[in-house]
């Protein structure tokens, strides 16, 4: 009962407290605040929407950045892999280069020339000889006797006459020159085929070189292409000649290059011994505004000096002397009243240091050198050492050895072929270089006179190999096996081998002409030789072998 009464009282009190009349003001403002609340809710909703858009944009930017980073990482990884592959190829290329360099050094030390009787190597050659009939020993011997031996006596008499006249002419040249200003001319020397006894084709021409030196107090300082300074590949075999005072070093004193004050004096050079001005350097035959000897100036001076010398001694002789070729300034011709004539070349040269290597102003008949790149570039000739080498080797060969005969026959065939089809890039100097290589490679007994046929075949096969490879190396340059008795300068033995066929690598027309001339010579060989062996007994002619080489 009390509990029920208590619940009724509590209910009544609660109803009274919550009656609306007790809160008239609050209940009256509810309708007014509803719109404000709704507006605030809309503003809040808009701000939340903008914040959501901003967050979505940030998320999109982060995703784009992440993708860019992933792509960059992929590119970096690929570049690393590419670099690894490139480093591997670089290392492999370096290994290959080192192997080639090691092989080249061995090649340069003499292996490139060591064909020393390798019959297997010779056997793989001779493709151009297929079907070519080669004359036998009897035909070659008859040809040599009738065509070659008859000219030996004529060459000896001509050499003697030309040398005597050249000595007289040079003596007169010294007398007309100013000893204080002009170049000093030394005695001449005979070089080339006439003095190595293998020239066969007429007209016979003697080649004489004349060393000369500058007047005191000047001297020549020679620099070869292999002395250290860089020379272009097309100038291998050339060098420069600098005209210096004897009391200055190769680079010259600083007083030659700077203006000292009027009150200043060089401690090395007095006023009297100061360097000559440019005009006087040109008097020393130097290229304009340089100290380098000019080949064109030298040849002009030499022609004028020879003309003056001949005018002084012409009354002593019953013949005329003239310059025979415009493109060869040293080419002279003696004309007798009978109509006969004798041609010879008198070429000024400069000695390289204390050796018998010479800088030559030009090559008569362009026998060896290609187009000279500059008049201050002088070609080096080793003709004196070539002559000495042949003489030295000849002392070790059997009596009547066939080495000179081989070169004479080959030179004759080549000359005959050129008269039929025109000149080619192949010269007699190339043929002599082939012989020099074989003389060094083969033992002495292989050059016995009865082996003429075999050695002639070796020369032709060696030449064919060189033509095929476009490589015929100079005999002395880069050859470490040159006999010590010759006293050959070591600087040229250590130099890189000089390829005499290098000019033909880029000039394909000349190379093609050279190869065609060689093949034509092989095909016409028997016919050319048989022209001079018509009187051989029938038994011998029937014995000519028709087997290819």
UniProtKB/TrEMBL annotation:
Protein name: Inositol 1,4,5-trisphosphate receptor-interacting protein
Membrane topology: Single-pass type I membrane protein
Organism field: Mystacornis crossleyi
One example GO MF annotation: protein kinase inhibitor activity
Ranges in a coiled coil: 38-72
GO cellular component: nuclear outer membrane; plasma membrane
Stated role: Enhances Ca(2+)-mediated inhibition of inositol 1,4,5-triphosphate receptor (ITPR) Ca(2+) release.
Localization in the cell: Cell membrane; Nucleus outer membrane
Signal sequence, renumbered to the chain: 1-20
Main location: membrane
Source species, domain of life: Eukaryota
